[in-house]
Specification:
Strand order of the largest sheet: 3-2-1-4-7-6-8
Oligomer: single chain
Number of helices: 10
Mean pLDDT: 88
CATH architecture: Alpha-Beta Complex
């Protein structure tokens, strides 16, 4: 029997956040149906949490820290830019081991927002026995109801952001800073996709992650990965089929954007639509709002 997999990337995360992520995931899916994997640089202090959830710990060489010295950052960038330049000229086309080393250095040195995708790519190359996989932020995601039944195993499932592409908002600014106002104008009428949570069949999801990593490796600095994804997604640059879910009615609620939080309430530690509506299967960014964060922490984080 094939199983599902929930996987997150967590370096230097607070145990309280990991308790919510791991405990809620296990409450929704038993070990007979779903594995939970945490890619982390250390299990110190979270061993009991992992054991309680029956979660797998997978090592990452990620060493990123906000306390890294300026000199170290300059050296890191120098190495990464040198390898990026060689890759761009095609000089590494006959040296796949050096390309793999370049990807390993991005995972090791870069910000977790980028490093996690290279960790996912590395790990997913050796995974087997899973039909559907979900990749999620570990800091601010809580699981509340089964959701894999809505994920097409032949596609990559993406979930709309609660915010739009307004130039003054996060998504709009990220696109403008990365690609300019002309590109922003071309996609501003669309609803952004939040890639804090992505799911799909094992094969299409692995292909998607590889394609995203290839794009990030070409420009590893100066762009937010969500902007890279949205630009590629709306330009049709991915060679995988997608299913897109609305933020209000899909299996994942992202609590960002005007009015999203006001349409929710927390009942017995579970986030639901206001007025006794449905419980959202997965909630992202629950910690941004006191009326959802406090009950969720009381239910899972204590």
């Amino acid at each position: 029997m094939t199983k599902h997999l929930i996987m997150g990337f967590a370096t230097n995360q607070k145990p309280e956040s990991l308790k919510v992520f791991l405990r809620s995931a296990r409450e929704v899916y038993p070990t007979s149906e779903c594995d939970i994997a945490l890619i982390t640089n250390s299990v110190a202090g979270i061993e009991e949490i992992l054991d309680d959830a029956g979660a797998i710990a997978i090592n990452t060489p990620s060493t990123y820290s906000i306390r890294v010295s300026r000199r170290t950052k300059l050296y890191n960038r120098a190495f990464l830019h040198a390898l990026r330049g060689l890759a761009g000229t095609g000089a590494l086309s006959g040296s796949p081991e050096i390309v793999a080393g370049y990807h390993q250095l991005i995972e090791t040195w870069h910000h977790p927002h980028f490093a996690r995708w290279f960790a996912y790519m590395r790990v997913m190359r050796t995974l087997h026995g899973y039909d559907r996989i979900l990749l999620a932020d570990t800091k601010d995601v809580v699981f509340q109801r089964p959701f894999f039944d809505r994920v097409d195993p032949h596609k990559v499932a993406v979930f709309q952001d609660g915010e739009d592409f307004a130039a003054e908002g996060w998504n709009g600014r990220w696109i403008i800073e990365a690609y300019g106002r002309k590109r922003h104008a071309a996609i501003a009428h669309h609803q952004p996709i939040c890639i804090g949570v992505v799911a799909g069949g094992a094969a299409p999801l692995a292909a998607f992650v590889t394609q995203l990593c290839t794009a990030i490796a070409r420009h590893p600095f100066g762009r937010i990965e969500q902007a890279i994804f949205n630009k590629m997604y709306f330009a049709g640059e991915f060679d995988v089929p997608f299913q897109e879910f609305d933020n209000r009615d899909g299996p994942v609620l992202t609590m960002a954007g005007d009015g999203v939080a006001a349409r929710t309430e927390c009942l017995d530690g579970l986030i639901a639509a206001s007025g006794g509506g449905r419980v959202f299967p997965v909630v992202h960014m629950y910690d941004r709002h006191e009326h959802t964060d406090r009950p969720v922490q009381a239910r899972y984080g204590a």
